[in-house]
């Protein structure tokens, strides 16, 4: 009888450890995030999520990109666009400010307000930078380009210096408007930013579900 009980207990399968919850990110930006004129499957958040999955990362990335959005517009919609339970934000805004020649002081103030609000909610931020077009002049370029590294330093953020790295100047990576990345361009952006995103994820822990 004892032997039978021992054999029976030994046959009970052990319970597997529960799988860790995926990290929930929000990609918050403009048309570069939204995937202007691209299918949803080719937009930056979806392509990045696939690339992370291929590297064994359990991450979901919500697409909170709005085409044409400025940093001021992003600030206005920040609170309702970033739901409770978000574990981290990839912040990509500023290109439309630059294209409109917005005073860099306005852009800086709006980005800093977004960062401050997210930090107050305990949500880590990966800041992605933008660079001014040379035709705006050296003074504007210097003031605008300094925004992102300055904010990263003052708020102790991980910075990806230029969101369009590897794409700018490559006509084959753009739509016919010459401004927005096509599907190939998005793949290039994701391949370039992936190591930085992984560094960011190493410091992000899933919150309570």
Give the class from helix and strand content and strand pairing: alpha/beta
First CA to last CA: what distance?
45 Å
Structure annotation, total helices = 9
Number of strands: 5
- Rg from C-alpha positions? 21 Å
**Largest sheet entry:** 5 strands, parallel
Beta strand %? 5-15%
Q: What is the overall pLDDT average?
A: 92
Shape: globular
Topology pattern, helix = H, strand = E: HEHHEHEHHEHHEH
Stretches with pLDDT under 50, minimum 5 residues: 1-12
Strand order of the largest sheet: 2-1-3-4-5
Helix content: 40-55%
Task: List strands and helices in order, with pairings.
Blueprint: H1 2-11, E1 23-29, H2 31-34, H3 44-54, E2 59-65, H4 71-81, E3 88-92, H5 95-99, H6 104-120, E4 125-128, H7 138-145, H8 147-155, E5 158-160, H9 183-202
Short description:
With 209 residues, the protein is α/β, with parallel strands linked by helices.
């Amino acid at each position: 009888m004892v032997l039978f009980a021992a054999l029976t207990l030994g046959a009970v399968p052990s319970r597997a450890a529960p799988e860790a919850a995926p990290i929930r990110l929000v990609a918050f930006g403009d048309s570069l995030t939204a995937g202007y004129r691209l299918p949803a499957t080719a937009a930056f958040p979806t392509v990045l999520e696939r690339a992370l999955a291929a590297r064994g990362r359990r991450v979901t990335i919500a697409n909170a990109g709005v085409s044409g959005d400025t940093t001021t517009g992003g600030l206005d919609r920040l609170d309702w666009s970033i739901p409770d339970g978000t574990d981290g934000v990839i912040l990509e805004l500023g290109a439309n400010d630059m294209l409109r020649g917005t005073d860099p002081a306005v852009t800086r103030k709006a980005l800093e307000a977004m960062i401050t609000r997210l930090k107050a909610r305990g949500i880590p931020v990966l800041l992605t930078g933008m660079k001014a077009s040379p035709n705006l002049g050296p003074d504007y370029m210097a003031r605008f380009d300094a925004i992102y590294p300055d904010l990263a330093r003052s708020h102790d953020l991980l910075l990806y210096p230029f969101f369009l790295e590897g794409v700018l100047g490559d006509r084959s990576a753009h739509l016919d408007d010459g401004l927005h990345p096509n599907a190939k361009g998005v793949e290039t952006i994701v391949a370039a930013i992936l190591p930085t995103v992984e560094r960011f994820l190493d410091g992000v822990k899933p919150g309570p579900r």
